[in-house]
Design a protein that fits this description.
385 residues, nine-stranded mixed sheet, alpha/beta, 19 strands, 2 domains, D-Amino Acid Oxidase, Chain A, domain 2, Geranylgeranyl_reductase, six-stranded mixed sheet, FAD/NAD(P)-binding domain, binds flavin-adenine dinucleotide
Length: 385
């Protein structure tokens, strides 16, 4: 296909400018490839999320771009968290973490990452651009755009377009597996009692099969408050997730007291969380899936940004190998699957087993409470959430 007014040619098309897509573009900054990011949303845009960022996400970005961590910690919207207090049956236990975590509103964080891509790479960024049809041939990939005559052409396409990925829908047989998918809701509150800027809190309830409600501090004296349940549980028991969120407060006298003067300052919004524990189809001829599009969120905690960032970096490494070998075959792309399996998915399987064991044997949580004071146990817990 030759360059014309309506055909834009690239080496790599990344669909989605969330943490996975921007990390992939950043990791390609010295690869000498012509890269485009296409996102359906106008930025800055919000993304329903608990907004707790694990250290490993920031460490991975810092390995890609030395100095990232320092700049991010100094970003005015970032909070550095040192502790988590877990509440269960009227008891509470505070974990002083071995390494800190962060919160940053997604409206700000994702825009920060996209601006970092603008600053350090020559990536072309197309926002408010909605993909339509993806076609893979022996020579490359083409993408048409809704309500536009423009066609994007590339050697390979990366699906970084989240839980409802159009790339995954069009290029794989992937279907929604409710046993490995969370429905989750989130709202912002102010005037929540006994909060500080360095402690995240989670409240377990035995009524909701050991799922937890989180209260995470957000810059500007706000709390990000949310709750998620397995989709299989929601559909089998006909649970209304939004009603359950408010019911959760009634289950716990501590929560009722904590929120006695609180004011909800945003609507309660929901979104899906695709959980990882086994690897599905994450690559094929001329494509790879990263982040939520590849179902990489942690089954125990529901967090996915760390693995989104890591998978973006792993995909970028595979892209560099593919361009060097000029090989975009499904077989060659398995190199991505293999690294993803050993670096991320094997660990998610441990979290999945822990999640299943705890939900079948809830009394174990009492034991975890008891032994969680031990530093080695705390370190292990931090490695699986
Ligand atoms: C309620 C809730 C709470 C959560 N809490 C946490 C938490 O505290 N910590 C944590 O680490 N993780 C959390 N997660 C998970 C986390 O949000 C995701 O794992 C993470 O956002 C995945 O990043 P991503 O880049 O793969 O996808 P996304 O962040 O979803 O980004 C996808 C991007 O693709 C764009 N897009 C979507 N569809 C298309 C399309 N068809 N064409 C073009 N562009 C498209 C979107 O506009 C978006 O910019 C939570 C999720 C939910 C729902």
């Amino acid at each position: 296909m030759t360059e014309s007014a309506d055909v834009k040619q690239y080496d790599v098309l990344i669909i989605g400018a969330g943490p996975s897509g921007t990390s992939c573009a950043l990791a390609l900054h010295q690869a000498g490839l012509k890269v485009a990011i296409i996102d359906k949303s106008e930025f800055p845009r919000d993304k329903v999320c608990g907004e707790l960022l694990h250290k490993k996400a920031v460490e991975t970005l810092n390995a890609i771009l030395p100095g990232f961590e320092k700049d991010f910690i100094n970003f005015s919207k970032t909070l550095v968290l040192k502790h988590t207090t877990v509440h269960y049956k009227g008891k509470s236990l505070t974990f002083d973490w071995v390494s800190e975590s962060y919160t940053c509103p997604r409206l700000e964080f994702d825009n920060y990452l996209l601006n970092t891509v603008r600053k350090y790479t020559s990536t072309d960024i197309f926002t408010a651009t909605v993909p339509d049809k993806i076609t893979v041939t022996d020579d490359g990939v083409t993408l048409t755009i809704k309500n536009s005559p423009v066609i994007y052409s590339a050697k390979i396409i990366i699906g970084a377009d989240g839980a409802h990925s159009t790339v995954a829908k069009q290029l794989t047989e992937k279907t929604l597996d409710r046993a490995h998918y969370l429905g989750a809701v989130r709202a912002y509150y102010k005037n929540v009692k006994n909060t500080d800027n360095v402690t995240s809190e989670v409240f377990f309830s035995s009524k909701y099969n050991l799922n937890y409600l989180w209260v995470f501090p957000i810059e500007g004296n706000l709390s990000n408050v949310g709750f998620g349940l397995l989709s299989s549980n929601i559909s089998e028991n006909k649970i209304n997730l939004k009603e359950s969120f408010y019911d959760y407060f009634k289950q716990s006298p501590e929560l009722a007291e904590k929120f006695a003067d609180a004011e909800q300052v945003s609507t309660l919004e929901g979104f899906g969380v695709p959980l990882g524990s086994t690897i599905g189809t994450v690559s094929g001829k001329r494509f790879m899936l990263i982040g939520d599009a590849a179902s990489l969120s942690n089954p125990l905690s529901g967090t996915g940004m760390g693995n989104a960032v890591m998978s973006g970096k792993i995909a970028a490494d595979q892209l560099i190998r593919s361009f060097k070998a000029n090989d975009f075959s499904a077989e060659f792309m398995k190199g991505y699957d293999n690294v993803l399996q050993s670096s991320i998915v094997d660990g998610l399987y441990s979290s999945y087993k822990a999640q299943r064991t705890l939900s079948k044997l809830p009394f174990l949580l009492d034991i975890v409470f008891f032994i969680g004071k031990n530093k080695r146990i705390r370190k292990y817990i931090q490695s699986i959430v």
